[in-house]
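Hi there,

I know you've been waiting on this one. I reran it after we fixed the sequence typo, so this is the corrected version. Both the input and the resulting structure follow.
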Amino acid sequence: MTFLKVEGFGKSFTISHLNQTIRAVEQIDFSIDKGEFIGITGKSGSGKSTILKSIYRTYLPDEGKILYDSEEYGLIDLLQAEERKILYLRKYEIGYVSQFLNVMPRTTSRELVEQSVLEMGKPASVAKEEAEYVLSHFELDRKLWDTYPNTFSGGEKLRLNIAMAAVKKPRLLLLDEPTASLDEQSKVKVRELIEKLKKNGTTLAGVFHDIEFMDGLCDKVFDMKRRQYTSEGAVI
């Protein structure tokens, strides 16, 4: 059964002070099966991030459907779902990772990951145990666990970002340009993290500019310009 289906998707943005409406993306159709990783490619401004933010419901599209096979609610259209259901899905089923790390000041890496677990209603003892496990799993240096992340490198911040999302064991994880501005060594680490998530059964959708990074990693690649798949398992 299809795990996520984007159907007839379209989104416009209004620039109020110019009294203009810009069509960001239109007539997008693709689907993902459970456990797959779909990569979305296209030039800047083609609407790649708009799609991910709409799946997460940060944006509300103008047309189409985004059908998601929820563990809690069954098949649900994310564009029509009540806000309380969206909040539940963000907390328990759908994660979002961007290239930016926006966190509370004077909060250590360990505390940030623990907070992600506490948000799910689990006790402090469980939060501590799971935070330590996921920080180790995603290879964040132990000496950084009790350090404020504003001092971290780009690769370290990204690993923490993924750890904060992954500790909730999301059924669906959205990756919005996670390799942007990273050096090659950091990109290798991110690729390894994604492979671990796939192995653990997480379904993923990601936006990337780095075509080489995606090669052999994605099960499907969707090209925004052609509005179709370009390959299965490789970028061409």
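Quick highlight: The mean pLDDT is 88.

Best,
R. S.
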